[in-house]
Amino acid sequence: MHSDSSATVPSSISSHNNLVSKTVPPVKLNPRNQTPVTVVPVTVALLGGTGLSGRHTFSILHEHPSFTVKAIIGSEASANIPYIETWKKKESALESHHERLGYVPQPPPPHRPVHGENLPVPMTIQTFLQSFSPSTIRYVISTVAPSLGHIESTLSSLNFTVITISPANRSPANTFVLEHKIPRSPLRVYASPNCVACGVAPVLSAICNNAAPKQTVTHVTITTIQSLTGRGDSPYPSSLCINNILPVGQIEETETYLKSELSGLFSSSSSDPPEFDVRCYRGGALRGHVIDLRVSLSDQQPRQAKLTASTVVSWLESFDPLSSYHASASFSSFHFTGSSPPILVSPSPTGVLQSSVTGMQIVVSNVDVSDSGCIRCTIVVDNLMKGAAGAAVQIMEYVEFHDHLRPKN
Ligand SMILES: NC(=O)C1=CN([C@@H]2O[C@H](COP(=O)(O)OP(=O)(O)OC[C@H]3O[C@@H](n4cnc5c(N)ncnc54)[C@H](OP(=O)(O)O)[C@@H]3O)[C@@H](O)[C@H]2O)C=CC1
Ligand SMILES: N[C@@H](CC(=O)OP(=O)(O)O)C(=O)O
């Protein structure tokens, strides 16, 4: 099923290059001679900007050459309190809450002006709506709980363009993982799926694209050991833990989200979409999800050479559907859409979260093919970057870069 507003990434997107070269976003350096150019940074508000994912998003945008955070929206609890104060308080609460895991508090952003402006003081949604309009804020990134999805709906009904990582407003028509599916026409709400889906979709896309047309992916089994994020500051009940592993099925919707969102992403690209089996657990870490992926293909033709692990590795390593955008000098000034290639095949996943420069690369290891032809691998995805803050900024960069998608308010 193809929606009007989206499409899977075609194998060649070079036909967009004329458009790309005409729609140059504001950048800090002239790409030709690297001299500074005067820019008017694109204005962004962060709904839930005081929360864990919101703080990560702020950190990215604080350093970003093209965007500036004009407003931070939180609850009454953080309104009118200096951002740095709330930041330190929340990080220190995480540190004491996760003491046994050795959580290292993330430092607040430096107090220097960003794009010539001071850090915004957090405000409520009511104050935000009194102070800003779609002509003064081009994008709202939302990192609030699903129960606050109505705030996203209100903002979009008022013509704000919202990019959300929250489950409330995700649908097959508005949910994107850019390496698998890109927006085709402007929307009021763009959504990034569950963090595990952000890691799995590019890997599966690489397999589907290369297996076709001889074979199709019929069945996908996903087992996760996710880090202990996902519920903001709410602790997980220790009574449900098996030693230090927590089956999430009884307390969270993650398995349901993953199954439906991956089915949605892959049904729009195939007439015969795969079936998804999903089981999720959480373990003792705050960053980095481990995902066991098993992919079954339709039966091989008798004369077809048997699939090997090295063939699968070559599929994954050569997968780079956004490469023609990376080649554009102006586009490469965008940090996240510019992370290339998206998949890093590593003999061992140890240390990958540190070594993958932006946290946007999906690290794949333990690739093999079973005797029955099932592809198996382990994925490590930085849930707060590729799965949350980074994914939201990546979508925003993509929309801003494309003239036909950029909000016209
Ligand atoms: N797509 C993905 O990969 C991921 C998605 N998520 C999703 O992100 C969301 C947030 O997670 P996380 O960052 O851990 O949550 P946090 O609990 O850390 O943050 C919640 C944020 O919502 C704000 N908030 C609460 N009530 C209101 C209100 N009435 N009006 C405005 N803002 C309000 C809080 O403000 P205050 O500080 O003032 O209380 C805070 O900024 C969840 O929906 C989660 O599912 C999370 C991780 C990955
Ligand atoms: N449940 C959240 C995602 C989540 O929990 O993310 P993480 O495990 O990275 O904290 C969602 O579907 O969006």
From TrEMBL:
Q: Which domain of life is it from?
A: Eukaryota
GO BP: methionine biosynthetic process; threonine biosynthetic process
Where composition is biased (Polar residues), the residues are 1-21
Region entry Disordered, spans: 1-29
Q: Which SUPFAM superfamilies match?
A: Glyceraldehyde-3-phosphate dehydrogenase-like, C-terminal domain (SSF55347), NAD(P)-binding Rossmann-fold domains (SSF51735)
Identify a single GO molecular function assigned to this protein.
aspartate-semialdehyde dehydrogenase activity
What's the protein here called? Semialdehyde dehydrogenase NAD-binding domain-containing protein
Organism of derivation: Triparma strigata
